[in-house]
Design goal:
Chain B: This is DUF2812 domain-containing protein. The complex is a heterodimer. By secondary structure, chain A is mainly alpha-helical. Chain A has 4 helices and 3 strands. Chain B folds into 2 domains: 103 residues, no CATH class; 77 residues. Chain B starts with a strand and ends with a helix. The longest helix of chain B has 38 residues. Classes of the chains: A mainly alpha, B alpha+beta.
Chain lengths: 109, 193
């Protein structure tokens, strides 16, 4: 779940949810996609995902697609603010990685 | 063929563990009502069970939306049997049991520390409010002993009062064990997500 501060670190779940929503998706699709993106490492719990989605909608980082009325499945899509949040996070991760590489070296043995 | 087992759990995670052990042995929970579990034969390890205390009453629209979301992710709600001629059922306390086919992969409801803590906090406040309620009603019952000319009925109230206070202490101890789980997670949260 995102921090209350505007520039706090994103959780890896939120980070991958935002990346997933570059393509519109519904909840189950997001879970599958996050699993795929992370080579099965990150398995989002349904309750965690549900909470994250409603927080992200509230924050305006993702939006609900007004799609097919017949289907009850809700589809979501990333917004401009969401893209900015991902880029901010990438810059932060770049800094972390760069410092790590510089000070402790490359990949673990 | 179905099998009925009666069990009482004060720790939902132990209950969850037991249901998953049963499922691993080919007995899948198909219905629950107060302390009464009905199992159906199934493939060994066909289902994974998870227990949750919902944020809202299962009949509230917000809960319906959540339950629909769970359904979309492949989880089904284990039906709760009626109790006391249908006036009460398990989910009156916002507890629900989900199951999902193990073939769909690992099944967790809360995968990050933050949402696990929030879930525990909901349970904690349920136990503590039940404890306070029983304690107040218990004391009222006992206080009836001390009104003018006690009757036989007052003696029943006294016994009732004692029982309610014991029940209250039981909820307090359940609250304490949840608080331990919360503080363990909170110390984890200081160093990782």
């Amino acid at each position: 779940m995102p921090d209350n501060k505007d520039y706090g670190a994103l959780t890896e779940g939120v980070y991958y949810i935002l990346l997933s929503l570059l393509t519109p998706m519904h909840g189950y699709g997001i879970m599958q996609n996050v699993k795929l993106l992370s080579n099965e490492r990150v398995e989002l719990g349904a309750g965690t995902l549900y909470g994250a989605l409603s927080t992200l909608v509230e924050r305006g980082w993702i939006e609900l697609l007004q799609g097919e009325q017949d289907s009850r499945k809700k589809e979501y899509r990333i917004t401009e603010d969401g893209r900015t949040a991902v880029r901010t996070e990438m810059a932060r991760l770049d800094e972390l990685l760069a410092n790590g590489r510089k000070l402790i070296g490359g990949d673990p043995e | 063929m179905s099998l009925v087992k009666r069990r009482f759990f004060s720790d939902f995670e132990k209950e969850e563990e037991w249901l998953n052990e049963m499922a691993a042995n080919g007995l899948a929970l198909s219905e629950y009502s107060w302390a009464r579990y009905t199992f159906e034969e199934s493939g060994k390890g066909e289902y994974i069970y998870r227990i949750e205390m919902l944020k809202e009453d299962p009949k509230a629209p917000e809960a319906a939306e959540y339950l629909q979301f769970m359904k979309e992710t492949g989880a089904e709600l284990v039906p709760t049997g009626k109790w006391l001629w249908g006036t009460l059922n398990y989910s009156n306390l916002r507890w629900v049991i989900f199951r999902r086919k193990a073939s769909e992969g690992a099944f967790t409801i809360y995968s990050d520390i933050d949402s696990k803590i929030k879930h525990y906090k909901r349970i904690h406040s349920l136990w503590m409010s039940l404890a306070v309620m029983e304690l107040i009603i218990g004391f009222f019952n006992i206080a009836l002993m001390f009104v003018n000319n006690p009757t036989a009925l007052n003696r029943i109230n006294f016994v009732m009062g004692l029982l309610l206070i014991v029940l209250s202490l039981f909820f307090i101890s359940m609250g304490r064990s949840i608080r331990k789980k919360i503080s363990r997670l909170q110390s984890d949260q200081l160093i990782r997500e």
